[in-house]
TrEMBL record, chain A:
InterPro entries: Glyco_trans_1
Domain of life of the native organism: Bacteria
Name this polypeptide is given: Glycosyltransferase
Residues spanning the membrane: none
Domain Glycosyl transferase family, first and last residues per copy: 322-479
Top EC category: transferase
EC number: 2.4.-.-
Keywords: Glycosyltransferase, Transferase
Pfam families documented for this protein: Glycos_transf_1
One term of GO molecular function: glycosyltransferase activity
SUPFAM superfamilies with a match to the protein in the record: UDP-Glycosyltransferase/glycogen phosphorylase (SSF53756)
Automatic annotation (TrEMBL), chain B:
CDD domains, sorted: GT4_GtfA-like
EC number: 2.4.-.-
Record bears the keyword Chloroplast: no
Name used for this protein in its record: Glycosyltransferase
UniProt keyword list: Glycosyltransferase, Transferase
Molecular functions per Gene Ontology: glycosyltransferase activity
Amino acid sequence: MIYFLDEYLLAKNSSVEHAALKRLALFKQFKQPVKILTRDYDRLSVQTLRELGVAQTDVRNMFDYFQHVPADRPEKAVHNDEINLPTMDEVSVDANQSQVTNGDRLRRQVGYIPGTVGHVYYQNFLDDQGNLVECDLWDARGFKSATQYFGQDGLLAFERYYDLRGVPVLDIYYAGDHAGQIQISRIVLKGQTLKEDHEFDTLGELFSYFLDQLATEDSETTIFISDRPGIGVQPLLAMHAAAKKFVYIPINHVLTPGKPRQGELDGFIQPVLQHPQKVDGLIVQTPQQQHDLHDRFPKVRVAAIPAVTFDPALTARSAAAAASKKILFVGRLSPDKQLDQLLRAVALASRQVSGVTLDLFGYGDEQYQTAMRQLADRLEIGSQVTFKGYQSSLADQYPRYALLVNTNLTDGGPLALVEAQTHGLPVVSYRFSYGPSACVIDQETGYLIKQGRVNDLAEAIVRLLKRPEQSQQFGDHARALAQKQLAPEKVYARWQAFLGLES
Amino acid sequence: MYYFLNDQMAYAKSGIEGAEIQRLQLFKANQTPAKIVTRQFALDLHDVLKDAGIDDTDFINLFDYFCDLLSTPWQQVTVADVCQPTAGVTRRREGRQVIFSRGSRVIRIVYLREKAGHEQEVSNVQYFDVTGRTIKMSWWDTRGNHCLDQYFDQGGKIFQEHYLDRHGRTRLEKLHYLNHSQQEKFSWKLVDFHGVDYLFDGLHDLTRFFYDQLNQVDGGYNVFVCDRTTETGWGLLHMTTPALKVLHLHNNHVVGNEDVLHAKLNNFYASALTHLNRWDAVIVPTPQQAQDMAARFGTATPIFTIRVAFVKAADVAANRLPFSQREQHLVVHVARLAPEKQQASSIRAFAQVVKAIPDAKLELWGYANGDMAPKLHALVEKLHLADHVFFKGYTRDIAAVYNRAQLGLLPSSAEGFPLTLIEAQAHGLPMIANDIHYGPADILANGKSGLLTQNGDIDGLANAIIGLLNDSTKLAQFSAAAYDNALRFTDTSTFVQWQKLMAFAAKKKTRLAAFEHVD
């Protein structure tokens, strides 16, 4: 069995989860048993997976495991009359939260899952002085999953997690002075008897124990691939049971872009780079990063495998789109994406080409988005720029645009660049470590611009928008290359070889 | 079912607990179902019950009830049962603590039980988080049940206590939170009780619910005898299911012995007596008190006279011994050294007695309350009675004392029901007691088995003592009469008193229950 180590799967995922989901689909296509492991507690996961189109049985959550919740337990609504309310109490129903009173006293509040009608999400218990003493947490699969207990100071003191029969299986204690600062300070995994209780200091230690259990239960070789370094690396290294361990590096491994040899290493990845013998290999997305790593750490075993594969079913860009003036950006909306430079380039391009529009897909800090909107207004392109928000699947968006543009400072390999190419979109991007030079051939499938050269960026955009035939040529070439290099069998074969799987 | 309501049962017992235990045994001997009911939590409760000879099946404690721990097997829980050595964890012993550490950090301390059957028996375990903060304290009762977990918040305060059943599930929570004046206010949560979670505003509110649950047996209308009003009265009177509620007085219902019709009411009973209509019946120990109660409150709520202490006829017979065996001129005063017992009266009277009877001796038996002992010693010194008055302390074999003496004194200013008078008489000891409310006048056959004196009349007391000590024939007659007098207060005759109440209760239940089922 192969397990991918992830923190969570959310309604709005980052590229780490997107890469994991794509890899999951690829492995499933070739009938390799695989699951995504999620570490964090999420009692709405059944809804999230449904929205993502991911089968429940393709994911195993650590809390579900310890709470003995079967992977395929379906969604089930729980209503007010199933939550042990005293029949004498009055319930005043509301869409978001009902108040439960006994005479003059407010005793409980019942909250509902957003977007549902009356599906119980939590129940607050109040003492007669109005203090919040406990909160029961309900899972969207129809059972009481946990209870939060609050101290005299109103701070969360500990949480108790139950199995489906209501038997406590896990206690997590917190320490901290005020609400913004509380952290896990003790985890107790309950055994059959008190003396079989296991104590952990951190969630990472519990996760490592979880990996040990999975490896031990697996009658065949277990392979773990850590997707998110911050939650996967330490627990892998701390494991006791035998297993094959791989670390996927989704980011640039140095903190200072442009200095691969001397730059300070990312703290989460550093342990495996300095002790490469402790894992079976590393995976990056680009040959460039693979080369830089090998250069600096000769003993490291590292493979470069693309995160995106070609799917012939995906729609290619239409001729009409190629002739349009619509530009697309996909990615997180944050300062390191240097969107201010992107906006300036679009403003410059707009002077030479009329009707240019820029759509940005992605989520990000609200303040930064507002700042960028204001910048667009100041640059007098406010009406041309649209922040589209986050969409899980952009398969039917890409084909509508003339080109994709990217102004990242650094990355491990932006998925959007590769995805755009599979749809036959030319890409205009700054050069950075890592990504652009691995998938874009300058002047053949797109343009690669030197960092910070906003004018050059604008020029490249104008060139493509003014010459639809050239754009069409670039796009077709991109798609043909993608079809060859990113063929699923080809990509999967590289995984097989690197992970040591039997063919 | 008859429920005897009390707050707690501990090793140190007052007259009320003693009366309840004797009452329980009386009911059992007469095949009448009854249970003592308490509401405070105690880890050693079942040790106390064992020591008092009370069966688990005759006792219901609130915590045992809600946690299904009414009757559990006894087991020894040792350190090995609660902690297993694991990799990286060291263990060291310091006195009665076993300390588990990971590196320099203490993660757990096991506290061993004092005077336990096993040297490594566990009393409680303290748990720490990575910052060294105490997060939990777990407790085992003396039967070996892990029955309590205390949780500590960031400020080091216990904010919740969880009472557990035998499977480690929380059944009842005591919530420690603050009111708007930042003072601790306790409230309760009862978890999943027949499918419902309940919240209670305090122990009285929880007690009320508890009594309603106890009332479910036998079709309801059970008889609840309230032996302590302050702790159990509110819960009883606020029950939501119909029950028969009996107020049991254990003391004078007014302050002092004068003007029973108008004197201030005893603080413990004032509220109950002012609303007697909420009670179905009242029990008082003596006919005198019954009369005074009826005169003041009427009998709309019927008053039953039922004594709170008694002896077995067979025991009285076995006690009889020849008067000549008693120590010449030995007088005893058996009572706690306390202000209302007025040992000072005995001592002052004795100053006169020794002038008339130089070899008279006074033994004071009983444990001291507060600073009474030094005061009384000083009085003895002042009156130069050190050769005649002796402080003997507490004994469990008080029968031997009653058997040795020729005369006993009880010059109290107040008594609930002087059990010691019956016991003394059952051992053939003539008694001189103050005629105060209530008891002595009812118990002693004045002029035949004892003498009544006036409160505060030291001379009268001295004369009474001298009169009897100087007349050994009379004294011997009084002694014989005392044994006979004690036979008025047997278990059999006491149960006859109870039967009057029981008949009333049965009739009332039938009437009330009939109302319910109107076709």
